[in-house]
Amino acid sequence: QVQLVESGGGLVQAGDSLKLSCAASGRTFSTDGMGWFRQAPGKDREFVAAISPSGGNTYYVDSVKGRFTISRDNAKNTVYLQMNNLNPEDTAVYYCAARRLRTATRSNDFNYWGQGTKVTVSS
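Structure (tokenized):
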């Protein structure tokens, strides 16, 4: 059974940093594309970042480019999202997702989802 477990969310102030982690189990992690999405209150789920199975390619939504960094450690079956210079518009529940055997950026292309971790940024 595939399981994705996010951690690292919390309450921070504008300008602070947070690092989210997503631990995967139940599949060969190194063959899957991974992504981070977020959903703010009253809004649709939004793509944030994605990374290829090898980690060699990364993709970001424009609003986080230069502030967020996605990375992965295939030896630890973990994907990370380093978030710097956070602002209140980043407040959301952040979800980790896995796409079997390839990179993806569209929500519908992902096969597995975590339960989410909440990030709140105060002004």
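The chain is about 0% helix and 50% strand. Residues 88 and 121 are 5 Å apart (CA to CA).
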